[in-house]
Specification:
α1 crosses α2. This protein has 8 helices and 11 strands. The longest helix is centred in the first third of the chain and has 28 residues. By secondary structure, the chain is an alpha+beta fold.
């Protein structure tokens, strides 16, 4: 699938309008860019706005939008030319960096060390109160947490216990995307998903495999099935973030469990506090979260957009601060 996007300044101060999506192949993506760009131009008051486009990882300004002398085919050719020029510039920059011996290795996305669950949740709560006034998120009482732990028969890490005393699910529909691709589960939901997932994966192993999977005993090792030691605390559409309660150095790590690939994605953070630290940093400083996602509240809810869309917004926004007489390359 090829990612495409079109952006232009909006009518409000600093506002950036973005249309984006995924299609199969560059030709289809360029056709989508042309159509969306024409719509953005048509929405203007007769002037020719600045239009930026994104194709894959390349961002380029396309001056041809609004040019009445260009038919659709010529406009698509202009888009391709501008994108190709930007891709070539990126390649030249990469070669130059390599020749200079430069290293642009991206730091590990989830290298955060463990910290304090309470401190990081306090940072997140403070941010929520500012951006979503009236937000109320409560935790469970300790007796309920202990009962859930006894029901599962697992030794929960202290951080998981503390998390549930602070956050027993999030019911506000505006905040269902607080963890990007996952929603915090209540204790009751966690127990239900834990029981049903064990049953579903055990039955699948009996029906389609060679019986129950003999999973490694140490935390962090791939189990290839849903094991009782996985305690889900967040989930969406059958996919979960689980705390791995198996013993070992990775005890308490946050592991992603996929309904199709089991725990193949592997540990995402070394602990819940590490995950919350990354989330708090993203919300309070607009850093990327979980492999390059940036928050937005443009639609009245907390949502996340890919880094390519966010970068395109930044490019357009940076141009808005330039003097109107300045030319664009």
């Amino acid at each position: 699938m090829t990612y495409w996007a079109v952006a232009r300044p909006g009518s409000g101060s600093g506002e950036v309008l973005v249309h984006d999506g995924y299609v199969v192949g560059d030709d289809a993506a360029i056709a989508q860019i042309a159509g969306a760009g024409v719509q953005l131009v048509a929405a203007e008051d007769g002037s020719r706005p600045m239009i930026w486009v994104s194709l894959g990882s390349a961002h380029a300004r396309v001056p041809g939008f609004g040019d009445q002398s260009l038919d659709r085919a010529a406009l698509e050719a202009e888009i391709r030319r501008c994108v190709t020029e930007e891709e070539n510039a990126q390649r030249r920059a990469a070669v130059e960096a390599m020749l200079e011996g430069s290293s642009h290795a991206r730091p590990a996305a989830h290298s955060r060390t463990a910290g304090s669950v309470r401190d990081q949740w306090s940072r997140i709560s403070d941010w929520l109160r500012v951006h979503f006034p009236g937000t109320t998120i409560t935790g469970a009482d300790r007796d309920s947490v202990d009962a859930a732990m006894a029901k599962m028969g697992q030794r929960w890490p202290a951080e998981l216990i503390e998390l549930y005393t602070l956050v027993d699910g999030v019911s506000d529909e505006r905040l269902l995307g607080l963890l990007h691709r996952f929603a915090f589960l209540t204790l009751d939901d966690a127990i239900w998903h834990w029981e049903s997932s064990i049953q579903i994966w055990d039955e699948s192993a009996r029906l389609y495999g060679d019986g129950p999977v003999d999973a490694p005993a140490e935390a962090g090792f791939q189990a290839d099935t849903f094991i009782p030691a996985f305690v889900p605390f967040a989930g969406m559409d059958g996919n979960f973030l689980c705390v791995d309660t198996r013993p070992g150095p990775m005890h308490g790590c946050v592991t992603e469990f996929d309904k199709s690939g089991a725990d193949e994605p592997g540990p995402r953070w070394v602990s819940i506090s590490a995950m919350l630290t990354d989330l708090a940093d993203s919300l309070t400083t607009s850093q990327a979260f979980d492999d390059g996602w940036y928050w937005t509240t443009d639609n009245g809810a907390l949502e996340w957009e890919p880094d390519r869309t966010w970068q395109l917004r930044q490019i357009v926004a940076s141009q808005l601060s330039r003097p109107s007489s300045e030319s664009f390359n």
